[in-house]
Amino acid sequence: MSKKVHSFKVATTLSAERIVAVTAANTVGYPANNQALPIGVTLDSVKDTNQAIPVVMTGERARLYFNDTVAAAGLVSSDSSGRGIPFTLANTTTALTLASAYVGILLGDAVAATATVAEILIQPSFGRE
């Protein structure tokens, strides 16, 4: 069975095994903040903005580069460089405040160190307090 992989334009250089969100029409980049819904994980690096980048999409497993510790079976969010971090809810004070987004679930053992590459199941969604 083949993975759900789609190609997208890039506006800037991107690294492999990083979380991306839609930033413009058919263009992806690292999520700007925790309220940008991620769509998947990059398979390759791209250094030229005239190239497309392959992105593994929802319902698939992907290898992700982590920048923080995450518990086994924990929800995974993104820092501003597309690296995996533990999902936490934004402090919301009103019902109109946007929720925090996550890209998916960590599979396997906990990530205990930065610069670890581990597998996730891509299931983007939002969490709300």
Q: How big is the Rg?
A: 14 Å
Beta strand %: 35-45%
- Strands ordered across the widest β-sheet: 1-3-2-4-5
Largest sheet: 5 strands, mixed, barrel
Question: Helical residue percent?
Answer: under 10%
Q: Uncertain runs with pLDDT below 50, 5 residues or more? A: none
Structural class category:
mainly beta
Describe the protein in words:
The protein is mainly beta and 129 residues long. Helices cover 0% and strands 43% of the residues. The strands form two sheets. Strands 1-3-2-4-5 form a five-stranded mixed barrel. It has a five-stranded antiparallel beta sheet with strand order 6-10-9-7-8, with no helix packed on it. A hairpin with a 2-residue loop joins β2 and β3. The radius of gyration is 14 Å and the shape is globular. It starts with a strand and ends with a strand. The relative contact order is 0.23. The model has no long low-confidence stretch (mean pLDDT 90).
Brief rundown of the structure:
With 129 residues, the protein is mostly beta strands.
